[in-house]
Every structure is written in structure tokens, then in C-alpha cells.
């Protein structure tokens, strides 16, 4: 039995008051173009990597049907939402494939840089693993 209780994307979205697509996007890589500089900044949590077949130990796992998230992942998504509610509001509202920094500038032109700095501090401890890797979060109890 897993020591972590994983929840499907739709359930996490419901708990956090978000659309499932928003949870899916924010937990992956989400690039924002900085107009005029040609730079793109990643504001995603980078908890899952479909193309690379990777996950973050203790945060995400993939079933045959979908990605699932642990309590640690849900808590981090919630902390991100509390810290930067505008990011979630824009992603939830706009539902587009690509974003520009100006999509997020209602009052704070430094928002994207602040998000990037915050993400670097919280995601620095992530441990990537192959999707089929059994993690140390698995406990085996004798019957």
C-alpha cells in the first residue's frame, strides 16, 4: 500500500477550485514569451514530463489513464495559487496553448520574474525518476 494517497487530476482541480486543464498545465512545463526579448520563461511546476516519461518522486505518478498527484503536490499547487493567484486566474480564464507575459500584467510587470524566482526555490528539491520507477515513498508492511 502506498504511503502517499494519490488523487486524479479532476479531483485535485475540484478541491482547488480550478479547471482540470489548469492543473494539468501548471504541473507541467508552461512557457511564457517575453515580448521584445525573445525570451521564454517557464512558470510551470515541472512535476510531470510526458515526453521524457519522467515524474517527480513523492509528487506525481502516471496511471494508464492519467496523471495523479500526492498531498505534497496538492499542497504545493495550493501554495502557488495563494502566492500568485493572478497566474491561475489567467490560465483558468484564457485556456490557450501559448501565453505572453502581458497576459499576466494587470498590476505587476515583474510578476513573471517573481514567479520564476519562487518556483526555483520550491522545485529545487524535486527528484526526477522514470515513470516505471518504484519510489522510496512505497512502504511494505508485513501481513
Task: Extract low-pLDDT stretches.
Answer: 137-143
Rg over C-alpha atoms, rounded to the nearest angstrom: 16 Å
Q: Total strand count, please? A: 9
Distance between the termini: 11 Å
Which H/E pattern describes the elements?
EHHEEEEEEHHEHE
The biggest beta sheet reads: 3 strands, antiparallel
Count of folded domains: 1
Helix content: 25-40%
> Which percent band covers the strand fraction?
15-25%
Strand order of the largest sheet: 1-7-6
Globular, elongated, flat, extended or rod-shaped: what is the shape?
globular
Number of helices: 5
Overall average residue pLDDT: 84
Q: Which class of secondary structure composition applies to the elements?
A: alpha+beta
Domain Exoribonuclease Xrn1 D2/D3: 3-138
Protein name: Exoribonuclease Xrn1 D2/D3 domain-containing protein
Pfam family, one: XRN1_D2_D3
Amino acid at each position: 500500500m502506498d504511503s502517499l494517497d494519490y488523487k486524479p487530476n479532476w479531483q485535485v482541480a475540484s478541491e482547488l477550485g480550478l479547471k482540470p486543464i489548469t492543473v494539468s498545465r501548471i504541473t507541467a512545463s508552461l512557457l511564457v514569451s517575453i515580448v521584445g526579448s525573445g525570451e521564454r520563461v517557464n512558470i510551470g511546476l515541472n512535476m510531470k514530463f510526458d515526453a521524457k516519461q519522467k515524474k517527480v518522486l513523492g509528487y506525481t505518478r502516471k496511471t494508464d489513464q492519467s496523471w495523479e498527484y500526492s498531498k505534497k503536490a496538492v499542497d504545493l499547487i495550493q501554495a502557488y495559487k495563494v502566492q500568485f493567484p493572478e497566474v491561475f486566474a489567467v490560465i483558468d480564464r484564457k485556456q490557450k496553448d501559448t501565453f505572453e507575459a502581458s497576459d499576466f500584467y494587470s498590476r505587476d510587470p515583474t510578476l513573471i520574474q517573481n514567479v520564476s524566482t519562487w518556483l526555483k526555490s520550491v522545485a529545487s528539491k524535486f527528484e526526477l525518476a522514470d515513470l516505471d520507477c518504484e519510489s522510496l515513498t512505497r512502504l511494505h508492511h508485513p501481513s
